[in-house]
Amino acid sequence: WPRYSTRQVPADLSSMDNLKTSVTNGVAPLQKFMTHNTDPDILIHLQENSVRMWPKEMLDSVNKDNLLLVIPAFVLSELQAGFKIGFLIYIPFIVIDLIVSNVLLALGMQMVAPMTLSLPLKMLLFV
After folding, report:
1. Are 22 and 13 in contact (CB under 8 A)?
2. 9 belongs to a structural domain
3. Domain interval for residue 26
4. Is residue 7 part of a domain?
5. What count of other Cβ atoms lies within 10 Å of the Cβ of residue 38?
6. Which of 9, 11, 28, 48 is the least crowded, having the fewest Cβ atoms under 10 Å away?
7. How would you write 30-87 as a 3-class SS string?
8. pLDDT at 54 over 60
């Protein structure tokens, strides 16, 4: 059981050099994860815009591995994926509402609220 017998040693933050070493060691896996899960088009777009917007002194550090580009690109990629998922979940609910309201109107039942029929249908289909 080697993984249970070894103990994690807390980071030594007693000096600035140790702090820098700990941060660089901790950022590397996080940066690798974010770069792997980022949409390349967003990263390229941010890189092109950074050349136009950043000061000239910072332009030499503009590359795809820069954290100032990777973090916003990762956040934008995750937001984009979340909105896509939310929209795809929302579409069937709207379709059911439209179908129920059209069927009620076709049957001449204008006084019946469409929600009274569409809610049980949604529960039957999605739960």
Report:
1. yes
2. no
3. 16-126
4. no
5. 22
6. 9
7. HHHHHHHCCCHHHHHHHHHHHHHHCCHHHHHHCCCCCHHHHHHHHHHHHHHHHHHHHH
8. yes
